[in-house]
Amino acid sequence: MSLQFAGRVGARGFDVELELAEGETVAVLGPNGAGKSTLLGVLAGLLRPDSGRAVLNGERLFDIAGNGRGPWLPPHRRGISLLAQEALLFPHLTARENVAFGPRSRGRGKAASAALAEEWLAEVDAAALADRRPAELSGGQAQRIAVARALAAEPKLLLLDEPMAALDVAVAPALRRMLRRVLANRTTLIVTHDILDAFTLADRVVVMDGGRVVDAGPTRAVLDRPTNPFTAGLAALNLLTGRGGAAGELVTEGGLRLRATSETPLAPDARAAIAVRPAFVSVRVAPPASGAGLQVVPGTVLDLEPRGDVVRVRTELIAADLAPGEVAALDLAPGMAVWCGFAAEQALAYPL
């Protein structure tokens, strides 16, 4: 095991345990205030926990008892690189000199550090930028240099804090592809709001809320099969829960009987869920005719939220993404009774 971590910061309501295997990339998801930045700060040594213990590759980072006392390794001795949202390059140094800073600070000679910098600049597709200073770089270019600088220090653990947050949406895909390549087989913890980062980069995800871990596991297992409404919201899925009924149906607490495709049969009376994307949900203002082939969830429109080229229609149990013209044609408004429907083959049922 590369990293074993348990830490508590009482003033922030933070109490988390997690593990990372060597060479594994784990994405930490959650809203603002969930404790993600606190986690990075404690690991990097920028924040001292009230209590807890962390071991990285067999080396103890801290071991603090409930009285707040115990060994605590300072940041520069941890072998951890932290890449913030902003590149934070040294403005007076060239890109090459910025990347060479890490090896130089670890005792390598000038020539060896420069050679290593050239290697990492090439690895992040930035060799042509070696002689430029930060003021001459775009946001995406600067972030590439920052990634090269972090990796040139040969960290035991790489921490990434929202690496795409400050970038133009057109630049992010290229940086995401580069990260997927350079993070392969490297122990990494990446904090992100973007579900695409998790799907693209992470072997596992940890979902945090209120300073606690509320869900964790392999990326697709957690995000395609959420176990709670919070994770379902992050994954942009509707989550309908209940218990297994007759012939593989899901019976909700309200008595709805719904069907969906299932890789694992639902056991009778065992807790289960159905996940379906809002894009696959239709809305009608009258009950659909019997035999329409839809799984129907009646409800009342709670709100209408424009989201780019669609409008999200929310009811008590389920949401649908409709084209603006369809919303207008149905004359939808909050308080209106509606019948939401989805095809069983476009939803997934699974045990909880």
What is this entry, summarized?
The chain has 352 residues and is of the alpha+beta class. The protein is 24% helix and 32% strand.
What would your notes on this structure say?
By secondary structure, this protein is of the alpha+beta class. The chain folds into two domains: 3-224, P-loop containing nucleotide triphosphate hydrolases (Rossmann fold, 3-Layer(aba) Sandwich), CATH 3.40.50.300; 237-351, RNA polymerase II/Efflux pump adaptor protein, barrel-sandwich hybrid domain (OB fold (Dihydrolipoamide Acetyltransferase, E2P)), CATH 2.40.50.100. Helix content is 24%, strand content 32%. The chain is built from nine helices and 22 strands. It has helices at residues 36-44, 95-105, 110-123, 139-152, 172-182, 195-201, 219-224, 229-234, 324-330, and strands spanning 3-9, 14-20, 25-29, 51-56, 59-64, 80-83, 157-161, 188-192, 204-209, 212-218, 238-244, 250-252, 257-258, 261-262, 271-276, 282-284, 295-300, 303-307, 310-314, 319-322, 337-342, 348-351. The strands form five sheets. Strands 6-7-8-3-9-10 form a six-stranded mixed beta sheet, with helices on both faces. A hairpin with a 5-residue loop joins strand 11 and strand 12. Helix 2 packs parallel to helix 4. The two termini are 28 Å apart.
